[in-house]
Design a protein that fits this description.
By secondary structure, the protein is of the alpha+beta class. It has helices spanning 159-169, 190-213, 226-233, 247-260, 277-280, 284-289, 327-349, 365-377, 408-412, 428-445, 457-464, 470-478; strands spanning 3-9, 13-20, 23-31, 41-50, 55-59, 66-69, 113-120, 129-131, 136-137, 141-145, 150-152, 177-181, 218-221, 241-244, 268-270, 294-296, 302-307, 311-317, 353-358, 386-388, 396-401, 450-455, 481-486, 496-499. It contains 12 helices and 24 strands.
Length: 512
């Protein structure tokens, strides 16, 4: 598989695109006004401990308090490992530990200062999620302070290689620290690990000193910026080249690659063309379509993607595709095409949490099994942790995917100020009824008799000029005098009412 990394930088934004076989599969965006904070280490102050939730809220200097669950409290706060060995996921800040449960109130106290690391960015109304299991990722290993275990990434599937890495890392593990071998560690020599561990120990010493000297709340360590983290985590042997369109960023990439992967720095290129780099690869239309609700796939079929706060639903439709043989074969082929595009869209849009995929119903059990295997296989290059359930009799696939930051829909767009993110607005008939009910309440109050009603021209046309003058009817019923003002600045789903005598805005007086 051909794999490339493209890095586009401007004054306000840096974008990193990952291409597989010339197809955009992943986009990372970093903006000056919206830094990535996963991996940042803070010295915080405990504000609230909630035994009923087994959680605490920590002040780390942000507008919203950080959330700490008892499962994210590490060994240095009284937790102990079970005796059995277990493998770890690669994600350095979300190390899943098997602990003996204790009440959180016996471990943490109000106003206590604590060193924490962000493992999930703020999403919607929720603050960041944090862990006391602080860890520092390197190129080949992750350094875990206050630990004494060696773990291997689950993505390294070879047991002989796992055994080799454990044996090799044993003598290199510093006293009082644990090590996690990352996926990139596969096949690497002792010298590669030794230099990585030394660099991480120097970094830990600096931030530990800063933590001891800082007064909480305070930022102790900032995780690497987008460019550096992409080179550290993604620039591996299977990447054919990295193309950077900014000279300063090119030097930064070369400098970091020289430290962590000197053999690969020849694959880094500086783009000097006149046309924008992403235009050269025709990526901008793909990025634009990334926010579309409807996604067309081959042969006229399409997906409908709806994102809510609780979950994401993806519906598969045959559209114009009618097939050439029997119905079951047509549906199976459509579902296969959809499975590949769904996997790509999930990675591209960085969708996380609970995802429900509604494939077209298939009666053949073997077809459902093959669809499930194909769908799982489509995620083989996805770096996020996930769990996928088999296809049900109703064609539903339930899956969860690691969510550490808001999806691109929430980063690149904002809720519509008119519909509030619903995607629909009230109809003209519904608005006319709302206005009638408003005047009914005003009539019951008997305080005003002359009004100026400001509404959009479209709504005015619906209420007055369609042969059934509803405003005249209101005036007749309540013996009001209403002057309709066509205001182009007012949206269809809104209206304003003024006291005609004083020009006072009285809209809120009789609103529900």
């Amino acid at each position: 598989m051909k794999k490339e990394i493209l890095i586009n930088s401007t004054e306000y934004e840096t974008r990193g695109a990952i291409l597989e076989d010339d197809k955009l599969v992943e986009l990372q965006v970093e903006r000056s006004d919206n830094d990535r904070i996963v991996g940042d280490i803070y010295k915080g102050v405990i504000k609230t401990v909630l035994p009923g939730m087994q959680a605490a809220f920590i002040d780390i200097g942000m507008s919203k308090a950080a959330y700490l669950h008892s499962s994210d409290i590490g060994t240095d706060y009284g937790r102990r490992f079970d005796s059995d060995e277990f493998e770890e996921e690669e994600a350095p800040a979300e190390i899943v530990r098997k602990k003996r449960r204790q009440g959180i109130e016996t471990v943490l106290k109000k106003n206590q200062e604590i060193l924490v690391q962000i493992i999930k960015e703020p999403i919607s109304t929720k603050g960041p999620r944090i862990s006391t299991d602080v860890s520092i990722p390197g190129r080949h290993v992750v350094l875990v302070p206050d630990d004494d275990h060696i773990r291997i990434s689950k993505r390294i599937s070879s047991w002989p290689e796992k055994k080799r890495l454990r044996k090799l890392l044993g003598p290199l593990r510093p006293e009082g620290f644990g090590l996690i071998a990352r996926t990139e560690a596969e096949g690497k020599s002792e010298s590669d690990f030794r230099s990585d561990v030394k660099r991480l120990l120097r970094l830990w010493a600096k931030l530990k000193k800063k933590g001891d000297q800082s007064r909480a709340p305070a930022l102790i360590h900032k995780e690497a910026e987008l460019i550096v983290s992409m080179i550290r985590d993604i620039f591996t042997e299977d990447v054919e080249r990295v193309v950077v369109d900014d000279k300063a960023d090119y030097k930064k990439v070369i400098s970091f690659a020289r430290q962590v992967a000197p053999k690969l720095k020849q694959r880094v290129e500086l783009y000097r063309g006149a046309h924008p780099l992403f235009d050269l690869y025709n990526l901008e239309p793909e990025i634009e379509k990334m926010l579309d609700r409807k996604v067309w796939i081959r042969k006229g079929a399409y997906l409908v993607i709806d994102q809510t706060e609780a979950m994401v639903t993806i519906d598969v439709n045959t559209g114009r595709y009618v097939g050439s043989t029997d119905q079951e074969s047509t549906i199976y082929q459509t579902n296969l095409l959809a499975a590949r595009e769904i996997a790509r869209q999930i990675r591209l849009r960085d969708i996380g949490g609970l995802i429900i995929c509604d494939f077209i119903d298939m009666y053949n059990r073997e077809n459902r099994r093959r669809l499930y295997e194909e769908f799982k296989n489509c995620f083989r290059h996805d770096r996020a942790k996930r769990a996928i359930n088999p296809v049900t009799d109703f064609g539903i696939v339930e899956m969860t995917r690691e969510r550490v930051r808001p999806s691109h829909l929430h980063v690149l767009s904002e809720p519509c100020p008119y519909c509030g993110g619903l995607g629909r607005v009230l109809s003209k008939e519904t608005m006319a009824m709302k206005i009638e009910r408003w005047f009914t309440r005003a009539g019951a109050d008997k305080k005003f008799k002359r009004f100026n009603l400001a509404i959009s021209p479209l709504l005015a046309e619906s209420m007055i000029e369609n042969g059934a003058n509803r405003v005249s009817r209101i005036m007749k019923i309540h013996r009001f005098q209403i002057n309709v003002v066509r205001d182009t600045t007012i949206q269809l789903q809104d209206f304003k009412v003024f006291n005609a005598e004083s020009n006072e805005d009285i809209t809120d007086r009789y609103k529900v």
